[in-house]
Design goal:
Layout (H helix, E strand, L loop, with lengths): L3 E12 L2 E12 L3 E5 L6 H8 L7 E6 L2 E3 L3 H5 L2 E4 L11 H10 L5 H14 L15 H12 L6 E5 L7 H16 L3 E5 L3 H7 L2 E6 L2 E6 L1 H8 L3 E6 L3 H11 L2 E5 L2 E6 L3 H7 L6 E6 L2 H9 L6
Parallel strand pairs: 3-8, 3-9, 6-7, 7-8
Antiparallel strand pairs: 1-2, 1-4, 4-5, 9-10, 11-13, 11-14, 12-13
């Protein structure tokens, strides 16, 4: 049986009379890549801060790598790496100097840190950039340097808060590959992301949060099976309004969003048969995915 890397029970946090974390129970196993998903304002980042002991909870019990938090948060954080939502690199230092300075916070001797730098830079796709200054790096390079920095203390567990936001596909895929390698090494990864494809690719389990509560928990495939019809047909075009009554008669559930009708069904063939040859409609047929589940459970309204 796998050890528990993070255990949270009855976690609550209120700011200015608004309960942002409303009684969360959560366990993450050692060696697991676990995704924490939710719209803006759902409480994901606050949850991470509470688990790291950076914010004091109003109620609840937190055990991070066996240590009680916040009482022993400093001891727990010594065994943890963090990739924050926004990079906090020092622009006055070189790539290598950023790693050395950060490593000193953990009490690691400089010679040990410098011995790790070549491997860290190779791992993060920054080989040969040790002397580069921060202003010369692209946004993707800075994000990868933040990942290298989070690994400087060889952590057992890695918190990653939206690690690929703003990256181009090449940089995103490189970070995905590196996270898979970390999982293969037995590292525990806790990931928040707005990219449902990212969560499906990387995470063995995900939790979906909304309004400070956990509303779903399980593997991506299990959540799709549990919450959504297996097939989706997206339809749009000039004839959509006239065709919508046909869709209502042929599929158990539809969502009309803007100029697109999303039709969910176990057997989409009758629907597809009616669509074939329609010059006034365009459609896409695909299997249901985690994003469909996410939107069903949290809604399609914009969150600020």
């Amino acid at each position: 049986m796998s050890a528990v890397a993070l255990q949270v029970r009855g976690l609550r946090k209120t700011y200015a009379a608004l309960e942002v974390i409303a009684g969360i129970d959560l366990s993450v196993l050692a060696g697991e890549c676990f995704g924490l998903l939710g719209p803006n304002g759902a409480g994901k980042t606050t949850t991470l801060k509470l688990c790291l002991g950076l914010t004091e909870p109003d109620a609840g019990d937190i055990r991070l790598l066996g240590e009680p938090v916040p009482a022993r948060a400093r001891a727990a954080r010594a065994r943890v790496g963090v990739v924050p939502q926004f990079d906090s690199l020092d622009p006055d230092f070189s790539v290598a100097e950023n790693l050395v300075v950060y490593g000193r916070y953990f009490g690691i001797p400089e010679r040990v840190i410098r011995s790790r730098i070549p491997e860290l830079l190779e791992f993060s796709g920054l080989a040969g950039r040790a002397a580069a200054k921060l202003p010369t790096l692209s946004g993707g390079m800075k994000r990868r340097l933040t990942l290298a920095r989070a690994l400087v203390n060889d952590p057992e567990l890695l918190f990653m808060d939206e690690p690929t936001t703003g990256l181009d596909p090449q940089a995103r895929h490189l970070i995905w590959e590196r996270l898979r390698q970390l999982a293969q090494r037995g590292k525990t990864v806790i990931l928040t992301t707005h990219f449902m494809e990212e969560a499906e690719r990387l995470c063995s389990r995900v939790a979906i949060m909304d309004h400070g509560r956990l509303i779903a928990l399980g593997s991506p495939r299990a959540l799709v099976r549990e919450h959504i019809e297996p097939q989706v047909v997206e339809v749009h075009g000039a004839g959509l309004a006239a065709w919508m009554p046909d869709a209502a008669a042929l599929t158990p559930r539809q969502e009309h969003v803007g100029e697109t009708l999303f039709c969910y069904a176990a057997d989409p063939e009758p629907l597809l048969e009616r669509l074939r040859g329609r010059a006034d409609l365009t459609y896409v047929h695909r299997p249901a995915n985690l994003e469909d589940v996410f939107l069903k459970l949290t809604g399609r309204d914009l969150r600020d």
